[in-house]
């Protein structure tokens, strides 16, 4: 076990030397295969997950983003299979579309301990139409030679790798996206490193509390996320998420409030983001909603509890 973790850590250090900003959403942990392909297997069903985000509502051309994940797990193959598609409309002439196929293999280390390794393959489709907008300072178009003056598109191959270590209460994972991309441009993102950990505390037969820490790195940029979620009767949940600004003090510090419920095969969740700090009056608010539906598979046992 120790040798496996050392090997995985070494691989991440070798692959993830730099990064570029990916699509970031508050509720993507519920179906995280667009960031970490090893996340397949957290449920045994055929699960369809749809997440939409509307950011900076009080600003013109505000960003709009979405994620669609479809996944399932085959117990006899120890494997998870899925499709993930993400769309990120930056708002000012630029958008990114990232479809990919996802696969994960699980090693049963003990009866209650699993190691999942995942790989995804797809494309990055970048779109930019600089002709739709006029720069206040025309010289900005020539900074680093990376501002397209006309409509441009680009399709680039895309690969992600990740792992998760799972027990009934502990979840630790890490991933690297856009493995082959060392440099970012207007039309493609470069490597990201993600790492996260969570523990579930059972308070009584009605309540569970799950604190979580997430970290993302791209070159000199580090983004942290501190979250705590409470579950009531395995049906309702509510949580708080804080994104401390690790670069510029209180430059921007989003605080997210989330709530949701699970009923039979359906899940629905909502998150409201509010920014405070130096740029809060410019960054505005954000709304996020997700829906998921699961077709239950009675012949396959989940790796760990569905409601988490």
Q: Main attributes?
A:
about 300 residues, mainly beta, Porin, 14-stranded antiparallel β-barrel, 2 helices, 15 strands, globular, disordered N terminus
Summarize the structure.
The chain is mostly beta strands and 308 residues long.
| CATH architectural arrangement | Beta Barrel
Taking all residues together, what is the mean pLDDT? 79
Number of helices: 2
Cα-to-Cα separation, first versus last residue: 25 Å
Strand arrangement in the largest pleated sheet: 1-2-3-4-5-6-7-8-10-11-12-13-14-15
Low-confidence runs of at least 5 consecutive residues: 2-20, 303-308
Number of strands: 15
Q: What is the string of SSEs from the N terminus onward?
A: HEEEEEEEEEEEEEEHE
Give the DSSP E fraction (strand runs of 2 or more residues).
Answer: over 45%
Portion of residues in helices? under 10%
CATH class identity: Mainly Beta
Rounded to an integer, what's the Rg over CA atoms?
A: 20 Å
CATH topology: Porin
């Amino acid at each position: 076990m120790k040798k496996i973790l050392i090997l995985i850590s070494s691989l991440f250090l070798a692959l993830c030397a730099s990064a570029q900003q990916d699509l970031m959403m508050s509720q993507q942990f519920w179906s995280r295969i667009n960031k970490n392909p090893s996340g397949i297997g957290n449920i045994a069903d055929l699960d369809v997950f749809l997440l939409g985000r509307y950011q900076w509502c009080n600003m013109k051309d505000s960003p709009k983003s979405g994620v669609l994940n479809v996944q399932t797990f085959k117990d006899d193959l120890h494997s998870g299979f899925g499709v993930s598609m993400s769309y990120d409309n930056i708002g000012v002439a630029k958008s990114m579309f990232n479809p990919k196929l996802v696969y994960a293999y699980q090693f049963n280390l003990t009866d209650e301990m699993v190691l999942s390794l995942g790989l995804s393959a797809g494309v990055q489709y970048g779109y930019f139409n600089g002709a739709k907008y006029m720069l206040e300072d025309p010289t900005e178009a020539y900074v680093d030679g990376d501002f397209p003056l006309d409509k441009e598109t680009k399709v680039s191959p895309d690969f992600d790798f990740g792992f998760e270590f799972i027990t009934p209460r502990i979840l630790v994972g890490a991933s690297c996206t856009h493995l082959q991309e060392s440099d970012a441009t207007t039309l493609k993102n470069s490597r990201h490193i993600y790492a996260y950990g969570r523990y579930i505390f059972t308070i009584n037969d009605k309540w569970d509390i799950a604190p979580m820490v997430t970290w993302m790195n791209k070159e000199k940029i580090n983004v942290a996320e501190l979250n705590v979620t409470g579950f009531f009767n395995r049906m309702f949940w509510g949580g708080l998420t804080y994104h401390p600004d690790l670069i510029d003090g209180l430059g921007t510090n989003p605080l997210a409030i989330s709530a949701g419920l699970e009923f039979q095969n359906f899940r629905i969740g909502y998150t409201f983001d509010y920014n405070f700090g130096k740029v809060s009056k410019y960054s505005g608010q954000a709304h996020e909603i997700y829906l998921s539906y699961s077709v239950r598979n009675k012949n396959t046992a989940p790796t760990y509890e569905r409601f988490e």
